[in-house]
Design brief:
This protein is an alpha+beta fold and 238 residues long. 35% of the residues lie in helices and 44% in strands. The chain is elongated and about 85 Å long.
Length: 238
Amino acid sequence: MRMMTATLIAAAAMPAMAAAQQVATTPILPDAALLDVVAEGRSVRTPDLAVIDAGVVTQAPTAAAALSENAQRMDRVLTALKRAGVADRDVRTATISLSPQYRYGENVPPVITGYQASNRVTVRFRDIARSGTILDTLVREGANQIEGPTLTLANPDAAMDEARADAIARARARAELYAKAAGLRVERIVAIGEGSERVGGPIQPQMMMARMDAAPATRITAGEQDITATVTVRFVLK
């Protein structure tokens, strides 16, 4: 009898559980429609920070000689950066490497002919207008490997918030369009999901060469940059 009673109770509970699951997946209102909108908002800013990798590559017959020459030239590069007003917090060592150089021949083991030392630093320029001139100075002081610049914002939070607000406004406008086309109206927002965010784009900044005092000088122009934010918004239409 006890086993039969337990079986009856379990059987009676199953419809209730199924009903609970059905309620969880039922739309919010029986006479309403749900609309999911994905929208991208943007704001535009002029970059105020340039990030550049500057390095020194040296070669010598011995490892010690390659490292010694590299250290001397990199010391001149770092001194030039400090003299140009670049703060210590804006200079960071990226990589230091030392590798043998080989001569290869057929059917013979490779022969070490010397060593190559490399030291690269990542430099942030907070005055983009002067970064080209500083780059020229670095090259004169011994830097022979430069990559960049990457132009970005030092403090992107305000611009990102503006892009987020624009994304919500665009999502709302699109929902109003769909609702009007369907003969409905936007009742309310029931969910907001934040997607990808991006400061700047893949396009490299413009690099130009101009003559100043009969000598070429590097110029870097900041231009404008898009800051984008993507949101997914769920609307109730009635």
